[in-house]
Amino acid sequence: MTTVVLADDEALLRKAMASLLPLEGEITVLAEASDGAEAVEATLRHRPDVLVVDLEMPGVDGLGAVAEIRRTRPDQVILMLTRHARPGVLRKALKLGVQGFVSKSAEPAHIATVIGTLHGGKRWIDPDVSALAVVDDCPLTDREVDVLRATGDGYSVADIAGQLHLAEGTVRNYLSNAMQKTQTRTRHEAARYAREHDWL
């Protein structure tokens, strides 16, 4: 039997997976989480065999949750669900030790199979996820993406600097570069442009 914690902010999808995964394999869902902070808390409390975590969640996102969990449980097995797999995100996740990547549109039977594969000590990256990640048409650096994402979430330059442990001048430089690359006039336009192109 493989124990799992499910973390996804889309309640309908999370509840469906919690119901369907045990039907597809020898899987027990120990807990569900609706955001990154809950994912960290549930994983550290329940110590599952596999954490199944959505990449994009409000507040602490999937990568942030993984980084936090890794500090306490460096060997935690993690399967990340994603709709968009930018190369930078894939690289960051692999550096953090994420063992598996699956598209959020995958069938529960496939997700259950991958959970079993990861629990068996192997890795798994869905071909469609890796194909998306190889097509790198995003001109933005990882840091430019970070500051634009925070801008899109409504944070000020000072807030972004504090969050990312950068000087405010450095944040402004990243934003200026991003505006040039997206040919936009404001940081909010740049963030909107980047979201429309699935770069964030």
From TrEMBL:
<keyword id="KW-0597">Phosphoprotein</keyword>
<feature type="domain" description="Response regulatory">
    <location>
        <begin position="3"/>
        <end position="119"/>
    </location>
</feature>
<feature type="modified residue" description="4-aspartylphosphate">
    <location>
        <position position="54"/>
    </location>
</feature>
<protein>
    <submittedName>
        <fullName>Response regulator transcription factor</fullName>
    </submittedName>
</protein>
<dbReference type="Pfam" id="PF00072">
    <property type="entry name" value="Response_reg"/>
</dbReference>
<dbReference type="InterPro" id="IPR039420">
    <property type="entry name" value="WalR-like"/>
</dbReference>
<dbReference type="InterPro" id="IPR000792">
    <property type="entry name" value="Tscrpt_reg_LuxR_C"/>
</dbReference>
<keyword id="KW-0238">DNA-binding</keyword>
<dbReference type="InterPro" id="IPR011006">
    <property type="entry name" value="CheY-like_superfamily"/>
</dbReference>
<dbReference type="InterPro" id="IPR016032">
    <property type="entry name" value="Sig_transdc_resp-reg_C-effctor"/>
</dbReference>
<feature type="domain" description="HTH luxR-type">
    <location>
        <begin position="133"/>
        <end position="198"/>
    </location>
</feature>
<dbReference type="InterPro" id="IPR036388">
    <property type="entry name" value="WH-like_DNA-bd_sf"/>
</dbReference>
<dbReference type="InterPro" id="IPR001789">
    <property type="entry name" value="Sig_transdc_resp-reg_receiver"/>
</dbReference>
<dbReference type="Pfam" id="PF00196">
    <property type="entry name" value="GerE"/>
</dbReference>
